Amino acid sequence: MPTQDDLKDTGLRVTAPRVKILNLFQQGQRVHLSAEEVHRQLLLADADVGLATVYRVLSQFEQAGLLTRSHFESGKSVYELNEGDHHDHLVCLDCGRVEEFVDSEIEKRQKTIAKQRGFDLRDHALSLYANCTKPQCPHR
């Protein structure tokens, strides 16, 4: 999990907005946050950080490798801590909730398919879009 020392190691100064945003990702209940959600959570915590600053910090964190950005069907970018492990995503088409999962069989199958078709797989992103059936989905 990235720390304030990681900010320094990537050449970023340790500033209050950067620390507050990093803490949101480290301690938040939701792991995938849009810039608007980060801004809203900062406002709820009485942190005086503007939306433009949030966008700038998220971009800096992504470039520094502290966060990864994903684009889902909603058209919005969401960010999550870059913890170095590969995982795939399930995305609810109703509420937009994102859940991570890892499945070794899916991983093996993707590599096999790529190899069979003459590709040397370097990276991939799998997102499954569905309607969640969990009680917390507001559209259920």
Would you mind describing this structure in some detail?
Helix content is 39%, strand content 16%. The chain has 140 residues and is an alpha+beta fold. The mean pLDDT is 86. It is globular. The two termini are 34 Å apart. The chain has five helices and five strands; from the N terminus they run ααααββββαβ. It has helices at 4-9, 16-27, 35-44, 51-63, 104-116; strands spanning 67-71, 77-81, 88-92, 98-101, 127-130.
Helical stretch count? Answer: 5
From the alpha-carbon coordinates, what is the Rg to the nearest angstrom? 17 Å
Biggest sheet descriptor: 3 strands, mixed
Q: What is the overall silhouette?
A: globular
Order of helices and strands: HHHHEEEEHE
Terminal CA distance reads 34 Å
Strand content: 15-25%
The total beta strand count reads 5
Q: Decide which structural class fits the backbone.
A: alpha+beta
Q: Which regions are unreliable across 5 or more consecutive residues at pLDDT < 50?
A: none
Calculate the mean pLDDT score and round it: 86
Kindly report the spatial arrangement of strands forming the biggest sheet: 4-3-5
The amount of helix comes to 25-40%
Short note summarizing the structure:
The chain has helices at residues 4-9, 16-27, 35-44, 51-63, 104-116, and strands at residues 67-71, 77-81, 88-92, 98-101, 127-130. The chain has 140 residues and is α+β, with helices and mostly antiparallel strands.
